[in-house]
Every structure is written in C-alpha cells, then in structure tokens.
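Protocol step 4 of 5: obtain the predicted structure for the target chain.
Materials: sequence only (see below). No template structures provided, no constraints applied. The aim of this step is simply to have a reference model before the mutagenesis design in step 5. Sequence pasted as it appears in the construct record:
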Amino acid sequence: MLRTHILFIGIATCLLVCRAQAQIVSDQLGGPSHVHASATDGIVDGAANPELVPDSVAYRLYFIAVSEKPNPTPEEATRQLAHIRRIGLEDTDQNALIDVLTEFKTRYDEMVTQFNAIAEADTAAGTRPDIATFLRNRDKLIQDVREALARALSQEGVAKLNNHVQAEKKNMKVSIGEAQ
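Step 4 output (structure tokens):
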C-alpha cells in the first residue's frame, strides 16, 4: 500500500513538473495560454486532430525518433532500418535518407550540447538562457534537412516520406505552443 501511494505521488509530481515546464516554455515563447481546438491540458493529440500538428514539428519528431549517430551499433542500425522500411523506399532512397538523418543527428546533438552548456553558464550567472534563439536554430535545421532530403531522394521517395510523416502525425502529441 505504501509503495502504491509513493508511486502515485511520484507520478503526480512528474505530471505537475512537466506541465509547469511546458507552461514556462510557452510563456517564454509568448505563446497563448489556450487554443480553441481539440486540445487537453495544453496538448494537441494527433490521433484526434492530425491536421493541427504542423509539418515542421512532425518532421522534427520523426527525424529525432529515427536518426542515429554515425557508426551505430547493430541494434541501433536494425531499429532505424525497421522504421525506415515502413516508408517503402527504393534502396537508393533508403540509403540517402539514412545518410541525411545521420548528418541531422550529428548537427542536432551538437546544437543541443552547445545550448545546454550555454544555458548552464547563463543559469549560473543568474540570467535566463536564450531558448528563442535555440528554437529558431532548431527549426532552421529541420528546414535544412527537409531541403537536403528533397535534393537527395527521388521525387517518389520524397512523396513517400511525406506521406509517411503525415500518417505518423496520428501518433504524435505536441504542445499547443508548437502547434501554432
């Protein structure tokens, strides 16, 4: 009984902290406190309203979920290939997608590491980290990767990838701030 009570408190605390952090980010970005859409607690559920998940957000979430660092372990490569095969790409497009995603993963990880170091220094100095600049740079990276994919894949490959990402929106939940 005590374990169940402690587990419940832990889950409740986690939910409150996550919600508070989401509100802080929304406030920092100047986002509204509500949206007149099918949203619950500041979240847009792609299962109910996939059209409310912006393409840029859907691609970012897909890239993060599927990308691997250079020289992945056999398990990582197998996991990535299992995701990518669901798109139905030709081998040439599949290999090009993996190459572009590997470059994305490298750049994204570097961007996050750099931001975290700066944010720690800012916090230690008593100033707020510049999340807005990070988010702009992150969004530009996503656009750059989408453009690289348009150059690297066949037209059919680009269309299949887009259809796949659109279909994946039903599995995504995003904050209302990102859905605008």
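Step 4 remarks: The helical segments are 2-28, 55-66, 74-85, 91-124, 131-152, 155-168. The first strand starts at residue 39 and ends at 40.
Proceed to step 5.
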